[in-house]
Structures are given as C-alpha cells and as structure tokens.
Amino acid sequence: MKxxxxxxxxxxFTSCNKQAPKDYVTLSGTFKNxxxxxxxxxxxxxxxxxxxxxxxxPDGTFSDTLKLEEGEYFFSQQGKDPLAILxxxxxxxxxxxxxxxxxxxxxxxxxTGIQGSIYMEARRKKVKELIPDEEKFIATDSITFYKxxxxxxxxxxxxxxxxxxxxxxxxxxQEEFIEFTEGTMVYLYxxxxxxxxxxxxxxxxxxxxxxxxxxLTSLEDLxxxxxxxxxxxxxxxxxxxxxxxxxxxxxxxHGKNIxxxxxxxxxxxxxxxxxxLVTEEELTGIQLLAPENHTIYPDYAIQAIPRFIILDPQGNxxxxxxxxxxxxxxxxxxxxxxx
Length: 339
Description:
This protein is an alpha+beta fold. The chain has 3 domains: 19-117, Immunoglobulin-like; 131-196; 209-338, Glutaredoxin (3-Layer(aba) Sandwich), CATH 3.40.30.10. Helix content is 37%, strand content 23%. It has 10 helices and 15 strands. The protein has helices spanning 2-17, 115-130, 134-138, 142-162, 168-196, 237-241, 243-252, 271-280, 296-299, 330-338, and strands at 25-32, 38-43, 50-55, 61-66, 71-76, 86-89, 94-100, 108-112, 209-211, 216-217, 226-232, 258-264, 286-289, 307-311, 317-319. Strands 10-9-13-12-11-14-15 form a 7-stranded mixed β-sheet, covered by helices on one side. A 4-stranded mixed β-sheet has the order 4-1-7-8, covered by helices on one side. Strand 9 and strand 10 (216-217) form a beta hairpin. Helix 2 (115-130) packs antiparallel against helix 4 (142-162) and helix 4 packs antiparallel against helix 5. It is elongated. It is found in: Cell envelope.
C-alpha cells in the first residue's frame, strides 16, 4: 500500500511541475559596435509591419520576450537601412543572437528554434550571390533575364526542401517569398526596359505646371536648350540631400546652353510647403509644381525619386535616369553634351 501511495505521489508531483508550452518568443544576445539604443522588430511583409521596439544596453546586450505570429522578421532603424539579419520566429523559440553591426560576418544564432533563422541567413546569402547588383541583373535581354529568374527560384526551393521539416506554414511562406521576389524583379525589368525605350524619343509632354516665379510652364517652353530635370518632393529626404550639389552644379553651368528645372511631385495638397521650401533652400533655376493628376511616374518609367532626366534642345530624351548632381559622372556627361 505504501509503495502504491509513493508511486501516485511521484506521478502527481511530476504532473503538477510539468511546464506548459511557451506561448512567446525569447530573444536575447549581444550586438557589437552599436551606434543605437533601440531597434524596431518588423514582420517581413510588403508593409514591414512594426512588431515591437527592442531596447539595447550600452554594452550592446539585449533581452526581450514577445508573442507573435509565426513568420519572417527583421531589425530596422529609423531612417537607415535594415540590419542584415533575417529571423524566422514562432512562439516557443528561445534564441540568442550575436552580431557585429560593423563587421562582415553573419549573425550567430544559439538556443532552441534557430533552424528557421539559420535558413533565413542562407537564403539572404543566396539571393545576394545571385543578385549582387540589381541594376545589372535587370539590364539584359529577356531570355537571359528569365533564365536567371528561374535559376534564382530553383536555388531557393532547394534551400526550402532542405528545411521542409519546419512545417507547412514555413513552406507556404517561402513560396510567397519566391512569388513576391519574381514579381518584383519582373516589374523592375519592365520598368527598366520602358525607361531605356525613351532614349532618343520625344519626351512625354507636360502642360501648364505652376511656376514658383509666377505663371504656368509647359515642356514646349523649355525647348531650345538642354534641360536637366530634377524630380523631387518636400517629403523626400534623399531629394533634399541633393540640393547643395544641385545649386553648385547650376552655378558651374550658368550662362551655358542648359537650363535646370525642378519639378515637385508634391501636388496641390502640399502647395504651401513646396513654396516655402523652394524659398528656404534658395533653389534656383525653374521650379515647377506638378498637378494632382500628373502622369510623370508612368510617362518616364519612374519607380522612386529623386530622379534626374536630361533632354536635348529639341525636347528629346538624352538620359531618362541621369547621374545625380552629387555624382562624379554628371559633369563629364554635361561637358560632352555642351562642347
């Protein structure tokens, strides 16, 4: 009888102390050479949804727990490129990350549930290996381009197959990634082709854009000289960074057969900020505001701003994606055109 009671006691003790499965992720680790005190953990989606802020100690250590959906995540900083760390997380994981922010080595993962994150690092490297230069990747003929796309998809699927034990949700997410990557690269390829098709042809027309100096200006009014167009917006940080170099560039070619034209795509809703910024920055040249219903983006195959465009005196496109004012290539190009 005593023996039976003793066995029951052991069973009850074991049952009472059996831990329930963790319904959260534990993240900790050390990041060397940090110049920040926090990072934002984002879900790898088209919107990059913010999940939480991870706070760092001065020595680069951190520790946090969070509940989240199974999936792909990354660290980002406000106004800077994301860190080169991709994570695959699901509740129950307990992962330690060691990483040198300024080094070239991959992050080191330790703990439980690290297989997905190790896969993500392998995928990141494979994509970087096959697309080392995005511009060169899309600047090719269609047959070569689509062969490279198929090669990329096959290589990623090999990695997925090696990690298929991570489950159905993992496999489905990787197929979504493959589809998204293919769609993005095809879009960029088509936009690049459309952009190059503009060279030597009459520039897409625009009519009656408001001129900061007064009145309205159309493309027709700009003919007779070379035109260096700057497409920008008041909310675009990289655009505004080019202003000092742009003003210096215009000063260098003052009195020559070229005019500098800024076209803001802010639209009427940002009319007052546009006028104020042009005055504040003392932007010279011809400063125009595109209307709400402008078609500059599709007309000139633009994916992002700033974008610089050069037209010849007849109004034909010389370069639909000209070097920026801050680049070393712009002056030699303009000198060649104006000699």
